[in-house]
Amino acid sequence: MEHLAAILFIVACPTDTSNCREASAPQPFFESVEVCKLERQSYVNAFIDGNQLLSTCIPVEPDLVFEDAQLIWEVSDQLELTAEVRKDADSARSGES
Q1: Which of 7, 74, 87, 91 sits in a 20 to 30 Å window from 65, CA-based?
Q2: Residue 10 · residue 58 · CB < 8 Å
Q3: Cβ neighbourhood burial of 89 (10 Å; 0-12, 13-18, 19+)
Q4: What does the pLDDT look like over 13-68, one tens digit per residue?
Q5: pTM recorded for the entire structure
Q6: SS3 for 87?
Q7: Closest C-alpha to 34, from 54, 9, 8
C-alpha cells in the first residue's frame, strides 16, 4: 500500500502579499518529499493572472487522517511561504480518554 509523504502546496500572491490565496496543484500528493521537490521546480518564479505563485512541499506523517488535520500557512512580506499540516487540536482532544 502506498503512503502519502508530502503535499505540494501552492499559493498565488499579489506583490504586496495582502490577498494571497490557495492555488491548485495538478498533482498535490507525493510518496516522497524528494519527488515533490522535483515537481515544485515547475512553480519557481511562475505567475498566474498577475499573481506570483509560491510553493512548498509539506512533509506529512503517513498515518495522519486528513479529517483530523489543519493546513496552516502564511506568506511573509519577502514572499516566503511557510506551511505545515497539524493535527486538529479538537480532534486530538475528542480522542482522549
Answers
A1: 74
A2: no
A3: exposed
A4: 997 788 999 999 989 999 999 999 999 998 888 998 889 999 999 998 877 666 67
A5: 0.80
A6: strand
A7: 8
Residue type, 49: D
Q: And the C-alpha cell for 58?
A: 509539506
Closest CA to 12 of 20, 2, 24: 20
Alpha carbon distance 67, 79 (integer Å): 29
For residue 82, pLDDT over 50 is answered with: yes
Rounded Cα distance, 10 and 85, in Å: 14
pLDDT at 55: 95
**Nearest-angstrom CA–CA distance, 59 and 65:** 14
H or E, element range at 51: strand 51-59
The residue whose grid cell reads 519577502 is: 78
Residue with cell 502506498: 2
